[in-house]
Amino acid sequence: MDQSYNDYFILLSALLLIIGVLTTKFSSRLGVPALILFILVGMLTGSDGLGFIHFDNPQMAQLIGIFALIIILFEGGLQTKWSTVKSVTKPALSLATLGVILTTVIVALAAKLILGVSWLEGFLFGAIVGSTDAAAVFAVLKGQNIRARLGATLEAESGSNDPMAMFLTISFIQLILIDNPSYLLLVGSFFWQMGIGLVIGLLLGRLATFAINQINLDSSGLYPVFALAFALLTYSLTDIVQASGLLAVYVAALVIGNSDLTYRQSIFRFNEGFAWIAQILMFTILGLLVFPSQLITFDVIVKGLLLSVILVLVARPIAVFLSTIKMGYDLKERVFLSWAGLRGAVPIVLATFPMLAGLENSQLFFNVVFFVVLISALVQGSTIATFAEKLGLVGPKKIEPPHSLELVSIGKANAEILEFEVSEETNITNKPLAAIDFPNDVLINAIIRSNELITPYGETEIKVGDILYILVSRESKEELKKMLKQN
């Protein structure tokens, strides 16, 4: 009996992953965010659907959701370029703090009237839907040619506002449950969580970078696992001291991703694939947790629609316009930032907190939050690219390089291949390879020029725009990089 159950579980897991991967392909053609289809897969296979899986465990869903968010935030931080983000740090942090608070307050007023709950419960609902979602934003913006500054603002905001929403959610639950809460203690807790989370993220990010670059593992496939282990370690250590683990993970990933890293491409590609698995698992599980018979009711639909309209068309725009005063955004950019405030997994995961706390209206909150997320992802998520185009906020089209180089590296070889794009400032331009004084243990393996492979010879001249694949020993790596950076 147990063996057949195990086989059934493994088979179902395989089918869900296959369906999830294929879903990503169809989502772009249908113009619907993949997360919507993942959720629908969960709802379809659940108890109210085809009945393949019966899942009604908010605690397990919360654990899986947080684990997945760690992976997704880590991957998002790795891919984020600090050179782009540093120019939007101030507005992103303003949106992640003041913006979340303003959204919470406005939605709380609406929730008090529409849901007929107490003031504290209204503020709890506002806190749950107050933040944009990193998983949704990263997934929807990936591959889009939206202006770099706007994309960076949205990504930095979504990566850093989850801690604020989680803090507010837990705080309002405590205020509801505790007879005489200490408001001063809550304020102190906020600064502790954000400050210590930031510090631990910076420290462990640097420690992870140092460890990855110094350790000599037997296989290059172990380096991505090693990096991922630091992401989990960062969250757990930060959470143990009751600080913001999600903020720490995102900050650590920013540090790692913007550092000079051994086996950089292997680490990035592994975490990109693992983040997709985490998204598929998380949204499918959250889809399983909701029962369509409870969700698709007149009461939930009406209340969910009203709150969605207020969130998208009132609360978010007010929060954006007030949070970005005198920060260099014009009217069109603010309108776009308002529309691009996607809700996703985080509000649904946060909606499990009141359920585990046993609050009276927790099931109502979960169903309405779920409906709000569906509306946000479906309506906003599927129109972001079109909206940006209509407002004239698209940048140069992002073109993925058609060439690729797959490497199977053994740590014992004590060597690696670097990818370097030649710019006008590089001092090796217009010189033949034979005339360039490369350090010892350096070999130009391949040159990509105008998307064509060129086999390098001594007489081959280096041109601006060439992409060089350079085999270099660990000992000569720093010397080579210094030489290439010289003017």
Automatic annotation (TrEMBL):
Pfam families the record matches:
Na_H_Exchanger, TrkA_C
Q: How does it sit in the membrane?
A: Multi-pass membrane protein
Q: Which residues form the RCK C-terminal domain?
A: 405-486
User: Is Transmembrane one of the keywords UniProt gives this record?
Assistant: yes
Q: Name one GO biological process term.
A: potassium ion transport
Transmembrane feature ranges: 6-23, 35-55, 61-80, 92-111, 123-141, 190-209, 221-237, 243-261, 273-292, 304-324, 336-358, 364-388
Superkingdom per UniProt: Bacteria
List, in alphabetical order, the Gene Ontology terms for molecular function in this entry: antiporter activity; monoatomic cation transmembrane transporter activity
Got a GO cellular component term for this one? plasma membrane
What UniProt keywords apply to this chain's record, in alphabetical order? Antiport, Cell membrane, Ion transport, Membrane, Transmembrane, Transmembrane helix, Transport
Q: Which PANTHER family match?
A: K(+)_H(+) ANTIPORTER NHAP2, NA(+)/H(+) ANTIPORTER 1
By what name is this protein known?
Answer: Potassium transporter
